[in-house]
Amino acid sequence: MPEGDTLARTADVLGKLLVGRQVTGARGRPGGAQLERVIGQRVEAVESRGKHLLISFSGGLTLHTHLGLHGSWHRYRDGERWRRRTARAVAVLEVHGAVCVCFDAPTVELMDSRAVALHPALARLGPDVARRDFDARVVLDRLRDPARLQQPLGEALLDQGALAGLGNVYRSELCFIERLSPFVPLAKVADEQLLSLLERAARLVAASTRTGRRVTTQRPNGGTLYVYGRAGRPCRRCATLIESRVSGERPRRVFWCPRCQP
């Protein structure tokens, strides 16, 4: 599933193409969002909120997409051949000289812009780690909610109600960098450790958003990630074999070093 850095970068790219320009063509999938309603309107903003993307129009409508596991936004020049089949397109927006296409996203909604603040998936989001005004202490307060204290650290980092934008790659990498087990309950992690992890998360996501490369290691020429996707391979710190297992209410595979993260 795309993480917050991917969505922030997507919002930046689409924003440069769309904002301030009039929609000359638009369509959704059959039976889906009635995007033809925005034809003739001007695109006012493109923004990411965690793993969600919002495109707002001058007529008071907003397009909300969530990419799920397999969705993505593409940009094309007029007449350029699409890299995926037309049947997989779930949202198409055309402006003069450019076409923006969303493929395979499970969530595509066109709503009244005033309803965005009340949307159940958007209203519950915690602070967005990709935003410049991200405040780690606000997230710390949310993680210290009594209802979350017995939650494993790795699961808490995926809780979009506490912290929006982190996904499976970052939760494994951040726990490794901070030498914390992803299975330790939040109650046993000191405030200073959590703040360090959250501040590092913001720095890593900002760097990835800026460069387009997701790098967590200090020496990327030797590999861009420490543990994610490296089960059975030697730890870059201590050479112990990396382990992995599926865990959590929404089963996701977590990776860790049993020696560096006891």
The level of helicity is: 10-25%
CATH topology of the largest domain: Helicase, Ruva Protein, domain 3
Strand order in the largest sheet: 1-6-7-5
- As for the number of domains, it is 2
Termini separation (Å)? 28 Å
In total, the number of strands is 10
Rg, Cα atoms, Å = 20 Å
- Pairing-aware structural class of the strands and helices? alpha+beta
Strand composition percent: 15-25%
Rounded average pLDDT: 94
Shape: globular
How many individual helices?
A: 6
The CATH C-level name of the largest domain is Mainly Alpha
Largest sheet: 4 strands, antiparallel
Reading the helices and strands in chain order gives HEEEEEEEEHHHHHEE
For the record, the CATH architecture of the largest domain stands as Orthogonal Bundle
Query: pLDDT below 50 for ≥5 consecutive residues: which ranges?
Result: none
Fold blueprint:
Layout: H1 4-18, E1 25-28, E2 43-49, E3 52-57, E4 61-66, E5 72-77, E6 89-95, E7 98-103, E8 107-112, H2 120-123, H3 136-143, H4 153-156, H5 168-177, H6 191-211, E9 243-247, E10 252-256
Antiparallel strand pairs: 1-6, 2-3, 3-4, 4-8, 5-7, 6-7, 9-10
Helix pairs in contact: 1-6, 3-6
